[in-house]
Amino acid sequence: MTDEASKKKHRIYCNRCKHDTNHELKGEHKAVFGLGPNDLRETLTYKLWACMGCEHAVLEEEDWVDGMGEDDIEITFYPERSRRALVPKSYSKLEPTLAAIYKEAVTCYNSNAPILCAAGLRALLEGICQDKRIKGKNLKAKIEGLQKHLPNKNIIRNLHHFRFMGNDAVHELAAPKSNELALAIGVIEDLLNFFYELDYKASQLREMRKNKKPKTAKSKKFVPTTGFTLTQLS
């Protein structure tokens, strides 16, 4: 590979692929500041890289000041590269309001805003109960009401643990740990998957099978091709 070609390809951690991947350079912009006689000159170089696997892009900012060595160049990526970052999932039949709350909660988790993340997850759980017309005087009762819709009681048990975490975050401003939030998001995603993805796909499958059922052929009466009747032939 030539030097020119190597400059257009770089290994960067991909938040989507969850490992280091080859990225292709799609564009570059350079800006120079502090051009006065007594000013230090600062050079900002922006590079747009696209993952050669999933094709999601990342912006790289290189900050260099006169007098700095190459090892002192400050490099920042937007969005930030994080091995713990989560990627929001898509659900076929999720209401837009609930989808927005879910994505905001994941964004808060990725932005290291644990209290806001926990509050968002609690609001999302309340919204799911409301969407499914689950009644109850409080969130505990509503979670119990979900049990008649869920085949797995472990989800209900985990939702109760999540409820306590949400209470501490909202009322006592106690920030949950990152691993606790990651598990809570996983539980919520299991719930969303059951209500808004699996049920939708199952109904699609039922509709497809119904449309593919062969029509029962009607029996035809025997009509002799000769002048003889069945009585004459017997």
Walk me through what this model shows:
Helix 2 (96-110) packs antiparallel against helix 3 (114-131), helix 3 runs parallel beside helix 6 and helix 4 runs antiparallel to helix 5 (153-171). The radius of gyration is 30 Å and the shape is elongated. It has helices at residues 3-7, 96-110, 114-131, 139-145, 153-171, 178-212, 230-233; strands at 9-14, 19-33, 42-51, 57-65, 74-78. It is of the alpha+beta class and 234 residues long. It has a 5-stranded antiparallel β-sheet. Residues 226-234 have low confidence and may be disordered. The protein has 2 domains: 7-78, no CATH class; 96-196, no CATH class.
- Helix-strand pattern, N to C? HEEEEEHHHHHH
Mean pLDDT: 81
Record field, number of beta strands = 5
- What structural category do the secondary elements indicate? alpha+beta
Q: What is the makeup of the main sheet?
A: 5 strands, antiparallel
Total helical segments = 7
Q: Percent of residues in beta strands?
A: 15-25%
Please give the radius of gyration in angstroms.
30 Å
Overall 3D geometry? elongated
Distance between the termini: 91 Å
Strand order of the largest sheet: 1-2-3-4-5
Q: Roughly what percent helix? A: 40-55%
Q: How many domains is the backbone divided into? A: 2
The low-confidence parts are: 226-234
